[in-house]
Design brief:
This protein is 79% helix and 0% strand. It is built from 15 helices and no strands.
Length: 304
């Protein structure tokens, strides 16, 4: 028995040895570094990532002459440089402030339409049987690789023929059409992972397709829908190419309005800096407001 126990113990030690040897290098480093060092490293990474935003904020709170003479980090040595005069001038600039309203008018409908239509189409491709379903889905996947630059001239001619060129409705339609392929692809793959038993149980209870979609599919697909909404909102809000071509030149979005300020007033930094910060802070607020849903959607997609 002793000899047998010794043989078994040796076999166990030999079996356990390679397992420890195969432990990932990152896991060993994390175990030795400890939670404190890792948190400090992540904090430094976060500060480095936020540095451009902080620099833009501090620049927007300085006098234009001080901005031309020194960098924004001089604020820490001379806090008296900070002033709200730039934002007062920005609020009195009707063109820039009106462009923020125009940007919101374009971004919100474009995001809502993409989410609603993408969710309906994703549910149809995932759970409804209709002729040519797989073929149409391959067409949607193929549209993902089409660059936006390819569609600019044909769509411009089309919008000019139907009277949508240089209109807010035309910009909304372009963003909606170009955002739908990714929306359908993302939500269809997410909805397809919902257990079929849940849908069958709802159908046995007498639920129709619309009730099934609103009461079962949408609640379970909330993280993916939130992630899609964030992506679409950020893309439309920060877009400049489409807005520069299709938007109304008299009422441009914030990206085009700031570009026009640079072209007309090269030293108008007292308007450009606070305007650029306001243009950037809105997407940051949206992202951090829906951060939990965004992470849940990404992690759910990674697991599935």
């Amino acid at each position: 028995m002793t000899t047998a126990d010794g043989v078994v113990g040796a076999e166990r030690r030999r079996a356990a040895g390679p397992v420890r040897a195969r432990q990932p290098l990152t896991a060993r480093i994390a175990a030795r570094a400890g939670g404190g060092a890792l948190r400090l490293f992540l904090l430094l990474v976060a500060l480095f990532w936020l540095m451009p935003s902080v620099g833009l904020l501090l620049s927007s709170l300085r006098d234009p002459r001080q901005i031309a003479e020194s960098g924004w980090w001089r604020v820490f040595a001379q806090p008296a440089q900070l002033t709200w005069d730039n934002y007062s001038q920005l609020l009195s600039n009707g063109k820039v402030m009106g462009s923020l309203l125009t940007t919101a008018t374009i971004t919100v409908p474009s995001t809502v339409l993409v989410v609603v239509i993408g969710a309906l189409a994703g549910h149809a491709f995932a759970w409804l049987d209709f002729p040519g379903r797989d073929g149409w889905f391959l067409v949607v996947v193929g549209l993902l690789v089409v660059p936006v630059q390819v569609a600019l001239i044909p769509v411009a001619k089309l919008f000019g023929a139907v009277g949508l060129f240089e209109t807010t409705a035309g910009v909304i339609l372009f963003h909606t059409a170009y955002g739908l392929p990714f929306a359908v692809f993302l939500l269809r793959n997410f909805f397809a992972e919902i257990p079929r038993e849940l849908l069958e149980a709802a159908r046995l209870d007498g639920a129709g397709e619309l009730r099934l979609f609103t009461r079962v599919v949408l609640p379970l697909g909330g993280p993916a829908i939130a992630s899609l909404g964030i992506f679409q909102f950020l893309w439309v809000w920060n877009d400049m190419l489409i807005a520069l071509i299709f938007a109304d030149s008299g009422h441009p979005p914030i990206t085009v309005a700031l570009q026009q300020e640079v072209r007309q007033f090269g030293n108008n930094i007292d308007v450009l800096a606070p305007g650029a910060f306001l243009s950037m802070v809105v997407p940051l607020i949206v992202f951090f407001a829906f951060q939990r849903q965004f992470v849940s959607g990404v992690m759910a997609g990674a697991v599935k």
